[in-house]
Amino acid sequence: MHTPAAMRALASPLRREILSHLANHGPATSTTLAKAMGQNTGTTSYHLRMLSDTGFVTELRDRAKGRERWWDVVKGDRRMPPREQLTESEQDLAEQLGDDRLAEDLRLLSAFARDRDEDGDWQQGSRASTFMTKAQLKEFHEEYLKLVRRFGSDRDDAPADARMVLLRWVGFPDPRGSATPTS
C-alpha cells in the first residue's frame, strides 16, 4: 500500500517511466536508463535514489562493478490507502496522481490503437455496468487481483512469447445516477 512518501515519489512522471522501464526490460544502471529516456545520469541516479528510499526499486549489489550500480523494480502491492486514512493534502496528491496515471494510460492505449500491427488482437477489453453494493465491489476487486496473479507472470518467469500487458480495472458508481444496468 502506498505511503504519502511513496505517493510523492510517484508524482514524478520520470520516476513512473523508470519503474515502467525496469518492469518491462529488467535491471538497469542509471547510465542505461539515462540513454533510454534521454536524460543525464545525474538525473536518473537522483530519481533511482528517491525510488529506493520509498521501496519501489532495490539495488542489486551482486551485479555491481566498481561504481556501476544496478537497480530493479520491487514487486509489491501498489494500491492507494483508503481515502479516509489520508490527510486533506494527501487526498489532493492522490487525486493528482490518479489524474496523471489516467492521462498516461489513455496516451498508451491511444498509441497502441493508432500503431496497431498484426498483433492487434493483443488488445482485449470490455465495458459493462451492473448494480453492486460497496461490499460486493470490494470483493469483486479482490477477485480481480487474484485473476491477475493467476494468469500473470513475473518478468523473469514469463514464457518467451509473453509481452508486458497493461491491465487497468476501475469500478465506481455512475455519477449520473443511472437507473438501469447495461451490458
From TrEMBL:
<dbReference type="Pfam" id="PF12840">
    <property type="entry name" value="HTH_20"/>
</dbReference>
<dbReference type="InterPro" id="IPR051081">
    <property type="entry name" value="HTH_MetalResp_TranReg"/>
</dbReference>
<feature type="domain" description="HTH arsR-type">
    <location>
        <begin position="5"/>
        <end position="85"/>
    </location>
</feature>
<dbReference type="GO" id="GO:0003700">
    <property type="term" value="F:DNA-binding transcription factor activity"/>
</dbReference>
<dbReference type="GO" id="GO:0003677">
    <property type="term" value="F:DNA binding"/>
</dbReference>
<dbReference type="InterPro" id="IPR036390">
    <property type="entry name" value="WH_DNA-bd_sf"/>
</dbReference>
<keyword id="KW-0238">DNA-binding</keyword>
<dbReference type="InterPro" id="IPR036388">
    <property type="entry name" value="WH-like_DNA-bd_sf"/>
</dbReference>
<dbReference type="InterPro" id="IPR001845">
    <property type="entry name" value="HTH_ArsR_DNA-bd_dom"/>
</dbReference>
<dbReference type="InterPro" id="IPR011991">
    <property type="entry name" value="ArsR-like_HTH"/>
</dbReference>
<protein>
    <submittedName>
        <fullName>Transcriptional regulator, ArsR family</fullName>
    </submittedName>
</protein>
<keyword id="KW-0805">Transcription regulation</keyword>
<keyword id="KW-0804">Transcription</keyword>
